[in-house]
Amino acid sequence: MESAAASAERGDFGCSSLAANTAPSTTRLFRAVEGDELADVMRYSDYNIHPNSTFKRFAFDEGSLDTFIQANPGRSYTKKFIDVPTENLGQMYRHADPGGVGKSIGIDVYETPTFYNWFDKVNILGK
After folding, report:
1. Which residues fall within 8 angstroms of residue 12, CB to CB, at 6 or more apart?
2. What is the rounded distance in angstroms from the CA atom of residue 108 to the CA atom of residue 57?
């Protein structure tokens, strides 16, 4: 996995075409969550730390998120988004997601618990 900081140094985040900038200093990141994680989001407004995976992946746009959902039929997802400071993307890892997102970014929330301080709440798309 390539560090997002390395991508940022090259100016290769794709933020201009892939990420919806909600303000000059924030980037919108999208995530699909299933039932257990949705319950956690609704209760605590953060993402569930699963005992087998503390790495959370995000898409840079809703279309990529839809591709991920379509690549995983038979599962029920709710689409969410967060707005994070663009400067913090350098602390995340950029990678191709074989689950259908293509270009995505992720972070291990166990190794970087300050991630939860980067955003006010998890938003449900369409609400």
Report:
1. none
2. 9
Determine the Cα–Cα distance for residues 17 and 84; give it in Å rounded to an integer: 17
Q: Rounded to whole angstroms, how far apart are CA atoms 84 and 97? A: 20
Structure tokens at 21: 């900038």
83, 23 contact by CB (below 8 A): yes
Distances (CA, A) of 105 to 10, 51, 89, 122: 16, 20, 8, 17
Instruction: Give the model confidence (pLDDT) of 44-92 as tens digits.
Output: 877 766 666 788 889 999 988 898 899 889 999 999 999 999 999 999 9
Distances (CA, A) of 55 to 25, 49, 127: 24, 8, 26
Q: What digits encode the pLDDT tens for the residues 91-104?
A: 999 877 666 566 78
Q: Which of 126, 74, 66, 75 is nearest to 102 (CA)?
A: 66
Which residue's structure tokens are 């293509």?
Answer: 102
